[in-house]
Design goal:
Mean pLDDT: 92
Distance between the termini: 9 Å
CATH class of the largest domain: Alpha Beta
Helix content: 25-40%
Shape: globular
Number of strands: 18
Number of helices: 12
Number of domains: 2
């Protein structure tokens, strides 16, 4: 049995796949928390109990009201200047690199405990672009992740594009050759690959010639959350309202609260002091008071999770009720799919252009594509799926395991690369 695994370190959720006793023809995802294959990419430093928790337990501890620091969307730090910074946890400075090592090390320990063996080699998934329009920053992001992986105990580390990994998983399920567009819409990126797949091709060690094109854009579920929050929720807290002198309330407070990996920036003393000054001159002081209470209670992550719930609900219905019971006073907001789609239209347009460029780069007509394979949790966004499907109207639409296809495909790749 292999000592190699595939690690899908995701913006929202992480998984580990392994080719176990059944041999190289099959892979399985390892249970990382409460019998579930997914571990939310979340860390909570509980100040009351001086403990660190991960995944669903971290979210539960935070929502239960324990004092501490919640960190989410850790992958978004890679390739940015923030990765060389630090944050304060329990009165001590914690470098962001060490924060990522905390989480990835925990993923490794849990996977090894479930498999009953040590994993010394790993293929990590990576987006087609960690960072758009900067090869240097993109390479730095991969190098940073490789360094962290080795620091937590992986001796051999390789990388595979996440949509290619999903392609390997889909390939294990088909019985004939297909030209497939893999659409991997994750928490932080939208990645695409155009690949020739077949049972015969699956036996090849080298697949480079089967990959016609890859492309991606740094747009994903957290961006959809952000613009849903700004368009529907943040106005309740004073976003786009005015000061007495007719100038706009500074938008930075709201952008920080609407963006997963910058929420903690709203909790600084500097922000609190600035907000107090702004609130005194606001035309709608009750909205600023609501914002101040939210920040005082460090409820920004709670609000972001409620917005994410609303986004998910709108994938299956044209309307969704959002109960914001921790706002003061409590508020019930009706979300409209149409308004949500208006808010994210520019993002979806960028994703569409990425797909069109991919087809052009590959020299492939839309009607030559046999299948569109959707994976990634954010591929459930109705408008996004419809617009991608419309670009390839004759292709069959297949939904994979939205949270597991990449990890399963990485496991197959790890078995081929490391044995």
């Amino acid at each position: 049995m292999s000592t190699a695994c595939g690690v899908d370190f995701g913006t929202s959720n992480s998984t580990v796949g392994w080719v176990g006793p059944r041999g190289s023809a099959a892979s399985s995802l390892l249970a990382l928390e409460d019998g579930k294959a997914t571990l939310p990419s979340v860390v909570f430093f509980n100040a009351d109990d001086d403990e660190v928790s991960y995944g669903r337990a971290a979210l539960a501890g935070y929502l239960a009201g324990y004092e501490g620091r919640l960190m989410r969307s850790l992958k978004s730090l890679l390739g940015t200047s923030l990765i060389d910074g630090q944050t304060e946890v329990g009165g001590r400075s914690l470098p962001f690199r060490m924060l990522l090592a905390h989480f990835i090390g925990e993923v490794k320990r849990r996977a090894e405990r479930e498999a009953g063996r040590e994993f010394t080699s790993a293929v990590f998934g990576r987006p087609v672009f960690f960072i758009d329009d900067s090869k240097e920053a993109d390479q730095l992001a991969e190098d940073t992740l490789a360094g962290i992986a080795r620091a937590v105990g992986f001796k051999d580390v390789s990388f595979q594009y996440e949509p290619i990994a999903a392609a390997f998983d889909y390939e294990s399920q088909i019985d004939r050759e297909e030209l497939v567009l893999i659409a991997d819409i994750g928490g932080g990126t939208s990645d695409f690959s155009l690949v020739r797949l077949s049972p015969e091709r699956a036996r090849k060690a080298e697949r480079r010639d089967d990959i016609l094109a890859t492309g991606g854009v740094h747009i994903g579920g957290t961006d959809f959350d952000k613009y849903l929050s700004l368009s529907s929720v943040m106005p309740l807290l004073g976003y786009q309202s005015l000061m007495q002198n007719d100038s706009a309330i500074p938008s930075s407070y709201y952008f920080n609260l609407a963006t997963w990996h910058t929420i903690n920036l709203a909790y600084t003393k500097k922000t609190w002091t600035q907000l107090a000054d702004v609130a005194r001159d606001a035309r709608e002081p009750e909205k600023l008071a609501r914002l101040q209470r939210l920040i005082d209670e460090r409820a920004g992550h709670w609000l972001a999770m409620k917005v994410e719930e609303g986004k998910i609900a709108l994938s299956g219905a044209p309307q969704a009720e959002l109960t914001l019971d921790r706002l003061s006073p409590s508020h019930t907001l009706t979300l409209e799919r149409g308004a949500f789609e208006d808010a994210i239209g520019h993002l979806v347009g960028s994703v569409e252009q990425t797909v069109l460029k991919l087809l052009t780069d590959a020299g492939v007509r839309a009607d030559a594509v046999d299948t569109v394979f959707f994976t990634g949790g954010s591929s459930g966004v109705h408008m996004l799926r419809e617009r991608i499907g419309a670009l390839l109207p004759q292709a069959r639409k297949v939904e994979g395991d939205l949270f597991g296809s990449i990890g399963a495909g990485l496991a197959l790749d790890a078995a081929r690369k490391f044995g």
